């Protein structure tokens, strides 16, 4: 649903939702049910494009039954694991099903407070609202270490956000730096066509996709681990040791499908240097080293010195500014496609009615 941008004479919206992914759409669903006036600003040309742009083989590690937003079941077998294109199509269908007001191609360039609320500038126009929900998610600016620039220029380097398929990299050796879920999945895929080494710092625990015929998240849910509060002692431990689901790098190493190496600390010509002094000669590097926040457009005092949101369950110290869709915003479930709806409902019911 396309909506025209605001103008100076129009009444301000109740809420402006910045971000048209799953968090922004979940917020829109609950705002609509509450009778609020709102618009969702999506930087992409189409709903779901951020998912379409990810690597071809990406499959969720949660089944369809745990991957739905509020009000609309995920289509297909509840036990199947959706592809990234299925997720994109589902989000597009979600907007249509509830006729959510979405302004596409509308990245926010600047947001500031006013005496009566907030103003947002986009390439498509100017918006005003009494409150703002920032739902841009955790995957903003790809991060690579500074020493990556000193690697020999003939070594091909890709961040995981730019990787699509094994043919993106030249034949031969590839070092995957980082062993989170994306890094582990990509490393396993590359091991079928390349000689792969995975360089990791502290190894993360691995959990099987299914255990005794059941999805692993059924067990985690039964144990209450998906609802562990972020600020609790157990929550703090789990945040430091978030497991990799479905890809066991130690098993792949034991079966000689790939090699494991220590943390990368520097470069020497065509080689990466490990923290134990080893040298990994390679034809290419896949940096699965995560993302950094990018809120340069947010001219409101809600960020710490590292540019990270300061919040309590999405509520900031600035009245009318909220975050949604952050990892561990409230619980482990906050980061899951099927869990963000709970956070959205809680935020809107308590603060935006």
Describe the protein's architecture and organization:
The chain is of the alpha/beta class. The protein folds into two domains: 13-140 and 293-351, FAD/NAD(P)-binding domain; 143-205 and 243-287, FAD/NAD(P)-binding domain, CATH 3.50.50.60. Helix content is 21%, strand content 24%. It has eight helices and 22 strands. It has helices at 22-33, 49-52, 84-98, 181-190, 216-222, 233-240, 249-254, 340-351, and strands at residues 13-18, 38-41, 102-103, 110-114, 117-122, 125-134, 141-142, 156-159, 173-177, 195-199, 206-207, 210-211, 214-215, 244-245, 259-261, 264-268, 271-274, 279-281, 284-287, 291-292, 298-299, 321-323. The strands form six sheets. Strands 1, 2, 3, 4, 5, 6, 21 and 22 form an eight-stranded mixed β-sheet that branches. Strand 16 (264-268) and strand 17 form a beta hairpin. The model has no long low-confidence stretch (mean pLDDT 94). Keywords: Oxidoreductase. GO terms for molecular function: flavin adenine dinucleotide binding; monooxygenase activity. This is K+ transport protein. Pfam families: Pyr_redox_3 (PF13738).
